[in-house]
Design brief:
The complex is a heterodimer of chains A (286) and B (802).
Chain A: E1 7-9, H1 14-24, E2 28-31, H2 37-42, E3 50-53, E4 63-65, E5 69-73, H3 78-83, H4 85-90, H5 92-98, H6 104-109, H7 112-117, H8 124-131, E6 135-140, E7 143-148, H9 149-152, E8 153-155, E9 158-159, E10 166-173, E11 179-186, E12 196-205, E13 208-217, E14 224-225, H10 227-233, H11 243-248, H12 265-283
Parallel strand pairs in A: 1-3, 2-3
Antiparallel strand pairs in A: 4-5, 5-10, 6-7, 6-10, 8-9, 11-12, 12-13, 13-14
Helix pairs in contact in A: 5-8
Chain B: H1 17-22, E1 37-43, E2 49-55, H2 57-60, E3 65-70, H3 71-74, E4 103-104, E5 110-116, H4 119-125, E6 130-135, H5 142-146, E7 159-167, H6 170-174, E8 179-190, E9 199-204, E10 209-213, H7 218-229, E11 236-239, H8 255-267, E12 271-274, H9 277-283, E13 287-298, E14 304-316, H10 326-331, E15 342-351, H11 365-383, H12 387-392, E16 403-404, E17 410-411, H13 416-427, H14 429-442, E18 446-456, H15 464-469, E19 478-484, E20 490-494, H16 503-515, E21 522-525, H17 543-569, E22 577-580, E23 583-586, E24 592-594, H18 595-604, E25 617-622, E26 631-641, E27 647-657, H19 664-683, E28 714-718, H20 736-753, H21 767-801
Parallel strand pairs in B: 1-12, 10-11, 14-15, 20-21, 27-28
Antiparallel strand pairs in B: 1-5, 2-4, 2-6, 3-5, 7-15, 8-13, 9-10, 9-12, 13-14, 16-17, 18-26, 19-20, 19-25, 22-23, 23-24, 26-27
The chains are: A alpha+beta (286), B alpha+beta (802).
Keywords (chain A): FAD, Flavoprotein, Oxidoreductase
GO molecular function (chain A): FAD binding; oxidoreductase activity
InterPro entries (chain A): CO_DH_flav_C, CO_DH_flav_C_dom_sf, Diverse_Substr_Oxidored, FAD-bd_PCMH, FAD-bd_PCMH-like_sf, FAD-bd_PCMH_sub1, FAD-bd_PCMH_sub2, Mopterin_DH_FAD-bd
Chain lengths: 286, 802
Amino acid sequence: MIPASFDYSRPSSLDEALAVLGDAGEEAKVLAGGQSLLPLLRLRLAYPTTLVDVGRVAELRGIADHADHVFIGAMTTHHEVIRSPVVNEHCPLVALATATVADPAVRHRGTFGGSLAHADPAGDLPSVALALDMDLVARSSLGDRIIPAAEFFVDYLEPALEPGEILVGARVPKLGPGWGFHYEKFHRTAQAWATVGVAAAVRRSNGTVEEARVALTNMGPTPVRAVTVEAAVRGVAADRNGSLREAAEQAAEGADPPGDLHAQPDYRAHLARVLTHRALLAACAV
Amino acid sequence: MTDTMSEVGRARRRKEDARLVTGRTQWTDNIQLPGMLHVAFLRSPMAHARITRVDVSAARGRPGVVAVFGGADFAAEQGSLPCAWPVTEDVVIPDHPPMAVSEVRYVGEAVACVVATDRYKAADALDAIEIDYEPLEPVLDMTEALAEGSPTVHESGNKAFTWKFAQGDIGEAFRDAPVVIDRTFVQQRLIPSAMEPRAVVAQTDGDRFTLHSATQIPHILRVMLALTTGIPEHRLRVIAPDVGGGFGSKLQVTAEEVLCLLITRRLGRPVKWTESRSEGNLTVHHGRDQLQRISVAAERDGRIRGVKVDLLADMGAYLMLVTPGVPLLGAFMYNGIYKMDAYDFTCTGVFTTKMPTDAYRGAGRPEATYAIERAMDELAVEVGLDPMEVRRRNWIKHSEFPYTTIAGLTYDSGNYEAATDRALALFGYDKLRAEQADRRDRRDPVQLGIGISTYTEMCGLAPSRVLGSLSYGAGGWEHAEVRMLPTGTVEVVTGTSPHGQGHVTAWSQIVADALGVPFEDVSVIHGDTASSHKGMDTYGSRSLAVGGIALVQACEKVREKARQVAAHLMEASADDVEFSDGRFRVRGTTTERTIQEIALATFAAHDLPEGFEPRLDAQATFDPDNFSFPHGTHLCAVEVDTETGATTIRSYVAVDDVGKVVNPLIVEGQVHGGIAQGIAQALFEEAVYDAEGNLLTTTMADYLLPSAADLPDFVTDRTETPATTNPLGVKGAGEAGTIAATPAVVNAIVDALRPYGVRDVRMPCTPERVWRTLQNRALQNRALQNRALQNRALRNEEGASA
């Protein structure tokens, strides 16, 4: 690893971290688990002046069960999220998607908040945040700011965090009974980013889809909510007789899929349709 | 010695692994020397350009910078990187300066370097070097490169050589042949990805030079560097410390090795360079990259008459150590395990503005095996036979060995029937075929395909006279020395240079049996030209089949010396002294001496036979008479999701015959790793250059390597048909998996997709490529249907009007 030089700070409390970050200026970066940021440094694609390592800020870590939501601290590792009974009971989609992240080594280091704040549309958690309408909580010296997931992912690798703000976690709404979930990920190797991913949450009643939330991974510069599919699927039969497939045909509507060595845009659009269908089937448990 | 006590054949855990896997060992990058400086190279961002200006002055003023050099600074002394395999008399071997002086010919070519007090400062200062380029046309496609009017990589043109080889009457074989299969396959360019990156440490005391390098070839490197740099061989010591993988990529004399020597000579201080992974992807020599046209003439019953091969092999921008020879190693293998009357091979080496290619695991043989094994499946379809049946009708029968093939090699031994029968049983071939038929009937979106690869390879490189006949610049012998120490333990010096193969363990097992000493009492010295003065190093599955035999011969010499001492001490004739299990015994008596006692007595030298030199050591150099020919049958079942194009390997069975096995655990590891690499070529890996000649796959996010999570459990087994050409009966196991696996996987994918009219999928068979192939077939099928409908309509009209 041959990054350009930078200052490094490892505060032990959130207040201290905010103070360091406040002083460090616009080119400072918060270092969480390092699974995305360190490769960027190594390739000299990022040149932060200061790294604020929040690995020792205990307040940022942990999962809390609230009345209408689960709060997941930003520095909670993927591994901890996957193992959390609270997450598995109240927001299993988060656990399902997190379990597909890379490999065990990455999941023990990588963090929930780190992968949201990195705002990589190819990451698995941004689309889940969008599908579940999470509220992201950012703190600065001015206090807490709540940012709905729909407003958080501004552009490619660009979250709605201001200089001096740290993502402290996310409130994941408890959706209540009747919901089924699935994260359908297509990737070329275990360690590769999702070529396309589909996060789906479906509420059924009497064999019919009452409500669905569908968000797509790596189908644009930000995660994409597949609103056309959500509208089309409402009220259709939750079975294998074709209406879910028909709804899924509209998965790529409004998306702007990238082209790269693993997939050209038209193939990504095709995958989005196939995978959305599969995600809906799985979420409907049919 | 009874078989149960034999060390050879035991699944010994590797002695060397504890230090290797913990990193508590001497990797080149771990070496720290007093006053050491660090080198960073500036690399060409242009595929092809004239260098019009180099200004390093600003970089000289950067913090920590000790020196900055451009190509002109080395022009007088850097020479040309060597090519040791001038395959034809008229082969074009262009001048290959380690650092470009006036022209760059691939992206990544070194154009300047910074020497600084640490590697970060060295990397920082690269930004301050100014170089102006005048762009020239890149040359990227082999076929276009050979066309009239193409821009040229070198003034002499883009053709490096054409090499031809013919046996039998190929015209006759193809004349009126009932069946002709004619296919063109693309062997994509691969990037060898050893776990340890390349690294170099060079130092000098003004008189002597020492080069540590993560290399497979310390001995060859020393000779070549002496010839290239003018540093006399006897004042140059080359050390390959522990080396973490090579796969051929470290069978090279690299620009960085030469330049680090020149820099240390210039500055008088030790220097280190360790590549980053991205730098490695750009500038480790690449592998494969051939366009293969193969034609097979056959009878209606599937029997082959003859095979014709026309290759274009991408050399890249220069010829490196064995670049032009790599496709020729395949020249004798396109006939595979099959009998035929005629064979015709032509290979043209082509220059392009890309990183040079060179040996990569299998080197020419995986390419050959791929082409013939793919073609065998196509032949089976054409003649309506099961693909295994068409192979059976053509392969050399067990009763026919030794067999001289149409390519002129004599396969000493083999039993294709046994390996195949075992593989079919383990695989459940018939049951899978039944499931395949069922899925086809049901039009299951997930189709099942079965792929076969019945391969052989030539390894144990190589008989020196054969290498000479192929114009290779060196021999193929190997050297070993065995020393019994006074306390009865044994030191082995080997000319092989392990970089992950486990020689320390395997050599200990061989010596333990040969001298009757405990496995633990053997140590192995390797990789340092000061302590291991003679060797031809490690590549081409040669270490055991050649180096192991030298070791056996050296052990025999030691044992015979010890027998003389034992006979003398026991007052018997040497002819009456038997040796077994580490003991010399006078035949018919209980009088005995252990070999350890003999070692001590020889050391003391108080009472030795008249004229006996007081030493219990010996050297041996073995030059093989023939190659060895491992073979096997690999079977692969894949599920292809026709909706996404994704391939999942459902089961993989490998039955290999590598002859006698010294350590089954090591063989198992080699087979597993080899299969993984073969599958990787079939499904994942490809070096991609864009239209300007930029490498797009510079990171592991773009150049995909499978991990354990991406591979199935391999079912492996062995048959054992000993080689008859060496006393151990061994053949070599390092490349077999890589050679066998690639066609097995692609054959399976094509087999799955045949109902859709698919006849080939270009490698790597990525999901997108499979999907597009199906899309194209669907379009073509629709067009065909439309045409048929139109024709019918037309006929109806004609009929009506008549």
